């Protein structure tokens, strides 16, 4: 999670500071991403999607079996879908997102038994540090 926080701090100005890192089964970093919606004018450029795309390129396959995604904020519905589609083995996230979180806050898309693939999930890791980064960003906007 500390690596994801480090990545989040490199988010372009104007984008919400969220960092995501994909590790392969051996624990090697194979993809990372930050929110780039504003910088890229791309509504799908969430940190998780950017990191998953980079990991797929690095590994040469869209199937991220055995990989773990570590992200500083609870994923939204779109990102939960990308996690499922990529067959990510496990997700670790920091701060809970009560407004848009799709991994326990609003509902739990990743552990729904109706899916063909389910993901091991651990939330609230270094929650205070992750929440502080987001709070500082939004305080600066006001």
Descriptive tags:
single chain, alpha/beta, five-stranded mixed β-sheet, globular
Instruction: Give the tally of β-strands.
Output: 5
The dominant shape is globular
Structural class: alpha/beta
Strand content: 15-25%
Runs in which pLDDT lies below 50 for 5 or more consecutive residues are none
Overall pLDDT confidence: 96
The DSSP helix count reads: 5
Order of helices and strands: HEEHHEHEEH
Note the gap between the termini. Answer: 28 Å
Query: Fraction of residues in helices?
Result: 25-40%
Read across the widest sheet, the strand sequence of neighbours is 2-1-3-4-5
Largest sheet: 5 strands, mixed
Computed Rg: 14 Å
Fold and architecture overview:
The protein has 142 residues and is of the alpha/beta class. It has helices at 2-8, 37-40, 47-59, 77-85, 127-141, and strands at 19-23, 29-34, 68-73, 90-95, 120-122. A five-stranded mixed beta sheet has the order 2-1-3-4-5. It starts with a helix and ends with a helix. The mean pLDDT is 96.
